[in-house]
Design a protein that fits this description.
The protein is of the alpha+beta class. It has five helices and twelve strands. The structure holds nickel (II) ion (NI). Nickel (II) ion (NI) binds next to α1. The site of nickel (II) ion has 7 residues, from α1.
Length: about 220
Amino acid sequence: MRWSDRPVWLLPVLATVICVGIGLTVFLGTGGQGRFAAPTAQESGRALIGGPFELVSHEGETVTEADFAGRPMLIYFGFTYCPDVCPMSLQVMAAALDQLEPDARAEFQTLLISVDPERDTPELLAQYVTSEAFPEGLTGLTGSPEQVRRAAEAYRVFYRRSEQDGSMAEYLVDHSSIIYFMDRQGQFVEAFPHATSPAQIARRLQRFLEEEGSGSSA
Ligand code: NI
């Protein structure tokens, strides 16, 4: 089944962002107000976002979701050649975490999963994730095109090489721009669409920790 045939892409909860300098296109539906409405299709009360993955870290190690178990995660799918949308989203992630107290901030694992495995080698990601503007401890993940495809599918992430520019070396990748918030067990908590502010994200993360502390589930 082709990506584009999947009816899930019609859901208004998905924000698809075309990574181009001009004409930044954001499709946000009725979710509105910067608040992401969880998909209605659920199984055993769990949103059908996330799941097992096997990828290669920026340190060149094969990793799976089990390597990150125990920490809540913020996950973003993007690519290092993205001129604007990805760096901006990672800066939003960093700004949100900066609004938390240091010990609260340290709870969260941040991940950048490449949707451009052909160019995003572990070495390139290793360089990229150290940017001062990005979250401290940001881990970059890439892998074979098949590994990346499976991970993106698990997170309902759309990506496609842009064909508007004929140059193979200079291509862009159209992709969803969503920060996924997963709990310590790797279960979906919330998805922050592209327009979500750092303050909104910070409040949600803070509430998650407080609810954990009080014993109620997030
Ligand atoms: Ni991007």
